[in-house]
User: Fold these one by one.
Assistant:
Number 1:
Amino acid sequence: MALPIVAIIGRPNVGKSTLVNRLAGEQTAIVHDEPGVTRDRTYMPSYWNDREFLVVDTGGLVFNDDTEFLPLIRQQAMTALAEASAAIFVVDGQTGPSHADEEIAEWLRQHPVPVLLAVNKCESPDQGLIQAAEFWQLGLGEPYPISAIHGSGTGELLDELIKHVPQVTDVPETNEIKVAIIGRPNVGKSSLLNAFVGEERAIVSPISGTTRDAIDTMFERDGQTYRLIDTAGIRKKKSIEYGTEFFSINRAFKAIRRADVVLMVIDALDGVTEQDQKLAGRIIDEGRACVVVVNKWDAVEKDSYTIYDYEKTMQSRLHFTEWADTIFVSAVTGQRVEKILELVNQAAESHKRRVSTSVINEVLEDAVSWHSPPTSRGGRQGRIYYGTQVSSQPPTIALFVNDAKRFNENYRRYIERQFRQQLGFKGTPIRLLWRSKK
Ligand code: GDP
Ligand code: GDP
C-alpha cells in the first residue's frame, strides 16, 4: 500500500536538499546552510511518468568524523536505505570525487539497493560531461551529470530511476478511519504519533490532489486501519523556526477538514487555552467527530487535582465536551494511549451512523409529549410534522415544522439532547435542520 521510497544519499553540501526540492516540487523540503544539521527523515511525494514514489533526504553522510551527531545521520541513512527501492547518490561535479565520496560508494556497494550516481552542479553541458566522467572511478556505473538548481539532466536520471521503482496499483477505497491529531505546539502531538506508530517505521502515503507536502501515516490495530492525517505537519515543525503558530493553525484547519475523527490534544499542565477553543470551534463548524485527549497526565500532581475536578474545569471552557469523550493520557509513559483508539472507533461509528426515519419519529413523538414546542407571542404553537436523517458524517437530521421561527434555541437544544439520549451519537456532532413547511 505504501509508495516506493527513493533515498537521496551524499556528503553535506553536494545539493541533496536542492535535488529533493526539484523532484518534489516547490516549497517542500527545507534547505539548511550549515552542513550536517540533523533532521527528521521527511518523505516528499514525487512522480515521473506513471510512477509515484517518495523521496527521502538522508542528511549529510560522513564516515571519517566522530562528531556527536554523525552516527545518528548514518543510522538514518541506513534505515532509509533499508526501506528504499532505489538510491540516488549525489556528488559535487565542481569539486570532483573526494575521499568521502569513495567511502560512501564503498558503503553503498555493500547494499543490494540499486544506486544511481548523480553528479550535481554540472550546469554547463560540455564541461558537465567531463566533470561527470571523473566519477566512473567510484565503481557505481554511469555518472549522470545534472544541475539540481536548473533542472538539467534530471530527466535522464529519472528515466533510469523509475526502472527500479515498482508501480503501485491503486488501492481500493478502504474502511480506514482518518484521524487528525491537532493541538498547540508542544502539547505532545508527535509523541502521540510515535506512541501509535513507533518512531522508526512510519508507513507513509501521500494524498493525491492535496498539497504535495501533506503526508499521511497509516497504521493498523486489531484489524482496523487508521490514517493519521498530515503527519508531515506534525514532524516538520521541528525543522522550522519561524511562524510556527500561524503555520500550524492553518495546517490544523486543513487536517480537520480531511478527518473523520479529530484528536484534540490538550496539555494537562496548561489546561484549555484560547487557541484550543479556536480549534474546537473549527471542529464543530466542519462537523467532525472528536475525542479530547488531555496529555501529560503523568506530570499532574494527582492528589490535588483529580480527573473529576479537571473535567469540570474543561467543560466550562470547551462546551463540546458535552458530546466528545475526554481521555487523560500520557504519551510518555503510554498510559491509556491505546484506549484512545477505542474512543476513536466509537466516534467514527457515530459519525457515519444512519438512523431510520421511523426511529427518528419515535424519538420526536416522545420528546414532544414530554415537553411541547413553545408558543410564539402571537399565540400560535410550533408543530413538528416529522423528521428524517438526510446525511451522515456528521449525522444530519431535517425536521419539518410549521414555522421554524417558533422554535427557540432552548427547545432546539432540548431536541438535540433527546436524540443523543435515545440514540447515542457519542463522539460526533449532530446537525438539526429546522425547515418550515407551509
Ligand atoms: P545538501 O547539504 O547536500 O542538502 O546540499 P544543499 O541542497 O543544501 O546545497 C548545498 C549548496 O550547493 C547550496 O549553496 C546550493 O545552492 C548549492 N547547489 C545545489 N545544487 C546546485 C547546482 O545544481 N548547481 C550549483 N552551482 N550549486 C548547487
Ligand atoms: P508537539 O509539538 O505537539 O508535537 O509536541 P511533542 O510531542 O514534540 O512534545 C513536546 C514536549 O512535551 C516534549 O518535550 C515531550 O517530551 C513532552 N511530552 C509529550 N508528551 C508528554 C507526556 O505525556 N508527559 C510529559 N511529561 N511530557 C510529554
Note: DSSP finds 13 helices and 16 strands in the chain.
Number 2:
Amino acid sequence: TTPSASAADPAAGAAVKAADRAHVFHSWSAQGLIDPLPIAGAEGSYFWDYDGNRYLDFSSQLVNTNIGHQHPKVVAAIQEQAAKLCTIAPGFAVDVRSEAARLVAERTPGDLDKIFFTNGGAEAVENAVRMARLHTGRAKVLSAYRSYHGATATAINLTGDPRRWPSDTASAGVIHFWGPFLYRSAFHAETEEQECERALAHLEQTIAFEGPQSIAAIILETVPGTAGIMVPPAGYLAGVREICDRHGIVFILDEVMAGFGRTGHWFAADHFGVTPDLLTFAKGVNSGYVPLGGVAISAEIAATFDQRPYPGGLTYSGHPLACASAVATMNAMAEEGIVENAADIGERVIGPALREIADRHPSVGEVRGLGVFWALDLVKNKETREPLVPYNASGAANAPMAEFAAACKRGGLWPFVNMNRTHVVPACTVTEAEAKEGLAALDEALTAADAHT
Ligand code: PMP
C-alpha cells in the first residue's frame, strides 16, 4: 500500500504546482514567498509527492486525520451517501444527521446531549459564544493567552497567539488571562500544585476586576494544542468549573483539536472528570474528510432555546456527506480500538522515546503530552529555558526551526512546527513500527536544532 518510486511523475507535480500558483490564495501566507508541495496521494499514516518522496505524517495535517488518510470505511460511507442524498437544508430531519448527533452525544461527557453542527472549529466557537451570551444575557468572554480558537471574527479575538494581532478588533468583549503552564510559569511557580493554585487565584482576580455579572463565558482548550500541548495540572479544570458555577458563568471547553481520540480518550475532558456547559468539536469527528464541526450543548442551555429561537444557522449545517463520514469514523474508531491505540502508543512508545531523546539532545527543553498529542519545547539553553527562536520569529530569526523542519522532511518525516516547538501528533491509528520510524527520523533531525544551542 506504499507508493513506489516508479509512481514518481515530476512533470505532473510541476503542473499541479503551476496551477496552484496561478489562482490559489493560501491561508496565513505571503503569497509570493511560499512554495507549496504538490501532493499525489495519501494512505494511513503517510502521504507522498510527485517526486517519489513519501512522508510519515507526524502532523496529521492540521492535527485532524485522527483515523489516518483514506480509511476505507469512511471513503465508502461518503460514496454511499453521495449516491443517496448529497445535500439537504438543515431544517429537515435526516437519518445520517440524527445518527451523527446521537454518536457525538453518546461520547461527550455529562448532559451535553444536543448537537449543533457547523462546518468547522471556528464556527463552533462563534456559536458557542453566541449561545453563552444569549443564555446569560452578558457580553464578556474570558480566554487564555497561549490559545488558538479559530480565524473567524470572534474566534480570532479569543485566540491568544500572534495571529490575533492583525485582525483584532478589540471590540468583541474578549478578555485574556494566563492559564497554567509550569515550564514557563507566569506565576513564578515551582510545582504543579503552586501553578494550579496561582492560576486559579489569577482567574478569580481577573473575574473580580472585570465584574462577574458582565462575564458570559470562560473558554479554554482542555489541553491547549497549537500553543504548545500544555496538559493542565490536576485540579485546574475542576477549579475553573467551580468558579464558573459560583459566578453563573458558562464554561466552554474547546475540544476541536484535543477531541475524538487525540489524547487517548474520546475527549480530553475525560482525563479530568470535568463536564463543561458547551463543548466545541471538529477535526477528529470525521478526520476532516468532509468539513464538519459542532457544539455539544448542556440540557440547561438547550432549554434556553426551547421556546425561543436560536438566532444562528449555516446553509451546510449537518451536511449529509459530512455526517455520513462522521458516523463511519466514530464507528470505525470504536470497532478498531483506535482510541485505545492512541492511549497505548502514547504511553508505551512515544512518551518514553521522547523523554529518552530529550536526555540526549541539548535543544530539547521539555517533553509534554499524552495519547498521540506531544510537544517538544526547543531551547537554546536547558538551564535558562531560553526558547530556540524568539516569540513569533520569522525570516532569519526563525532559521533554527526552519533548518530543523527541513531536516525532518529530508528524513521522510512531516513535522508539525510552531514557533520554538515541534509537536508529535500522528494519526490515532499509528502503529508501533510507524511511531518508531518517525521517532528515529525526529531524533536525527534534532541534531540540526542542537547546532543552535
Ligand atoms: N479551536 C481549536 C482548539 C483549534 O485547534 C482550531 C484549529 N486548529 C480551531 C478551534 C479552529 O478550527 P477550524 O480551523 O476548523 O476553524
Note: The chain has a mean pLDDT of 96.
